């Protein structure tokens, strides 16, 4: 696959500017040749390095993570999650990335205790079954909220890895709707069934 190139997008031509006379008609009307540089030399695109793109993506992911964590902890004082925000961009596509928002433990379905982590990504994809965390990335959807079961990594450089013994691939939920995501996180964090019933009615 060819390496992606990114350029700094310029502002679009304003409607007033687009009605300016063309160079040849201006010469025919006045007999003058414009010496202004911008009339003859188009602005060159300034290409961005992958590091610059990754930096811009990281700032957006950080802001989204902060806002989402604030929304989750603002629901009820009995459901509070630790702030554990960090982000990663994809190596060959630094305009794509994901942000870890929080992590916790909960009793989940038939599992006694499940450690899990909640993420936001600026794309939509499947969660891979192997070392490739994301499969079939679709950038048409601008955001994905998901939670996965996690466990300590044994022979990997990562401290925590996806616990694929939970539901086959470790995925607890995945959605592009922020309201559904927050409701699911609150259900995972609710301490008793009474609180879960209230959350389900939201």
From TrEMBL:
Protein name (record): Uncharacterized protein
Originating organism: Rhizobium mesosinicum
